[in-house]
Each structure stands twice: as structure tokens, then as C-alpha cells.
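ARCHIVE CARD
Drawer: 12
Card no.: 0347
Subject: one protein chain, sequence and derived structure
Cross-reference: see card 0346
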Amino acid sequence: MHIKDTFTLKTNIIIKNRLCKSAMTEGIANSMNHCNQRHGNLYTKWARGGVGLSITGNVQVDRRFMEGPGNVSIEKDTYLDQLDDLKSWAESGKINGTQLWMQISHAGRQTPQSIAKEPFAPSQVQLKIPGKAYGLPKEMSEDDIQDVIERFVFVAKVAKETGFTGIQLHSAHGYLLSQFLSPDINQRDDTWGGSIDNRAKLLLTIIKRCKYELGEDFPISVKLNSTDFQKGGFSSEDSIYVAKLLENEGIHLLEISGGTYEQPRLIGLDDVSINPDRSIKRKESTIAREAFFLDYAEKIRNNVSMPLMVTGGFRTLEGMNSALNSGVCDIIGIARPLCGDPNAANKLLEGDIQELPSYEKTLQIGRGILSTSSRILQIQAINAFSQMAWFYIQIKRMGDNLNPSMKLGILKAFWLNNKDEKKVLKNLDL
């Protein structure tokens, strides 16, 4: 098996190869949080770059509770104003035979306080990270939960109407659907909390409704944490159990990821995190196999037969083909390498390169300067967030129809990204 091989979903939709541009926050929506030409420019580059499947950054179902000020949001009262731009975005992302799926999300308690002082969450459990960036959440009422279900289903219908070829429900990384799954965040004693079946009820209800509205042949994917990497949180055993529930519901692709804002594996903090008391070291076997979550995916694969996708850490052609041939996953998710070189997938598929660029290896500051554990943690956190900013700026450059800049340093990227976010917040028409 090779990354060049096609993959046929049970809907008979053919993905032209085994590479997926996995979801990354674009941060390029306008002041009304609508998509625009920048999204078309960006996804044209990625579609031409060779991936078989491209999944958008998280499109928000509720503008009051977004992951960031530059998110796209789709709501009933304003969606007609961006309908043409959504169609244009879909057409741009589908060129070159690429499948384009819309990732649909709600930030829940991970909504920055600059956007909502009192975000929604399953229970009134605040993020345990330093500073006051996130407010104490409001426990959602039954009406709030029903409203969220309607919002997810509505955005899914808009995705299909405007030409996206599938959807992905974001139930990982500590966002709202993930919060409902996690027992340390979801402390409800009604039908939406308690047992794992109750905690999974929101996600499963949305899937059932989407399948009813969109039809059995419209691809529905879920992004699921393999674990939250937190004591008392969503565990590996929980993940396996939910994966079985998702297979029973007939979803078409399950993407395995992990981490939350409190334990952010997704931003590259491996051995320590923003919350060091909860850190868990990566196993040597995982490091040797490249992908961060491949070991967890293997456990899930032993329990389900539906198609799996693993994202995070894949760099070499050998590592990707090995994962495919092992049967652990069917699709390889890649993200950051496509920010520095949107044509990297083509180069890998055509044999021009054997390994994707690992920009993180060169984007480092403060090596060897500080020795205490607290200072090491501080430098690692600065590195991680500055690296994220570097990738965000490259995404924004491509949205402006520019090429990525290899001359950009991470400290300047951090400054530019913060400056841009402040500007976006100032102009946000909330």
C-alpha cells in the first residue's frame, strides 16, 4: 500500500490518494466572520498541491462562542450574505480532483474572554491555565443544548448546499463536543452527563440528525481525541468505546487526535505543557513511529473496522507507507508542512522528496540559555506559541495570494500574529 493509492469511501466517493490536508485555523474571515476571497486563494494552493482530501479550519456554528476572532461562522440570520463566497470557497478547494470537507465546531469554554466573558460549557468548569484569557463558563441549559444541535445541523446543510463534498464534526482538542465527552468537564447529572453513553449523546444526536438531513451518501467524519492526556479526563478506554458508537452510527471516517488547551499535544508540547502537573511523556515507541497518535489509533483499530485517519507528526514517506501497510490507518493527515510548502504533497507523491519539511526543527529560540525547570517550561511554551504564529502567518500570506516566507523569524511572526489578532478583535462587528 502506498500514499498514491486511491481510497473509496462506503458512499462510493473516491479520494484520489491517501493524503489529507487536516484542519488548521485560518484566521482570515472578515469582520462579520464570513469567508471571502482569501479562503479561495488559500485552498486553491492546497488543492493544486496534490492532497486527495482537504478539511477546512473549524467553521463555527455560533458567532458568540468562537475559537478565535478570525474564524468563519455560519448562522441562520446572516448566512445568505456569504452564500456566494461559500460556493466560491468550495469550488476553489475542489480543483485538481480534491475532496473538500467542512470542519464544523463550537469552542465552548475555550472561547477567549475577548470574545465572550461567559462562554458555554456542559458544566461550570473553568480552564485551568494561567492568566485570565478564558472566563468562567455558564452551564448549558436544555434549551442551550437543543440550540447547539440545531446549529450544527444547519451548518452541515449549508456545507452540502454550497458544494463542500463532506463534513467533519470537531469533537477533539477540548472544544464543546469534546467537553461533553470528558468527565472532568462534564459534571452534569442529567441525560447529557454521567455515563459515557450520556456524555456521547450530544455528538451522536448531531450525527443522527445530519445523516437524516444530508442523506446516507454524504460523507460525515468525526475528529476524536484518543485521550485528553489529563487525569480524570477523556481516557483511551473512553475513546475506544466512543469509536464503537461512531461505527454503529455509520460515520465514514474517524480522525484520531488528542490534547486540549490544558494539555496541548496539538501545539507540540510533548514532555511538558502549560499545566506541567498534568504532563505525560511520549513513549519512545511513538517517537520511533513518527505519528503522535499512532499507538492510540492501533488500539482503536483493534476494536473497529471503519476507515481511520491519523494526523500529527508524519514526515517521511517510509513512515506514512508503513502506517498504511500496518492497517492502523487508511488516510494520512498532514498540516504544518503544507504551510511552508503548499506543493509538498505533490513532491512526496512524485518521488521528488522522501520526507516532508519539519520546520519545527529550525524554528527554535532560547536553546541552552536557561536551565531551571520553570524556565525550560517557559521557553518551551514560548517556542510552541511562536511556532504556531509562524504557521498562522504563512496561512495568511497564502490567503493574500503570496508565497510562504522562509525568511520570517518566529519572534517576528509572534509579534505580527498578535498585532493582527488585536486588529481583528478591534474591527470585529459583534
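Annotation on reverse: The mean pLDDT is 88. The chain has 14 helices and 13 strands.
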